[in-house]
Predict the 3D structure of the following.
Amino acid sequence: MNLVQKSVAHPWMCDVLGHLTTRHYVA
């Protein structure tokens, strides 16, 4: 379960964090 959660959460977190950081910097 940990491996699955990490594989799914890693890209999701990176995507969300990336969008949030870009939005903050752009805005």
Observations:
- The chain is about 95% helix and 0% strand.
- Residues 3 and 9 are 10 Å apart (CA to CA).
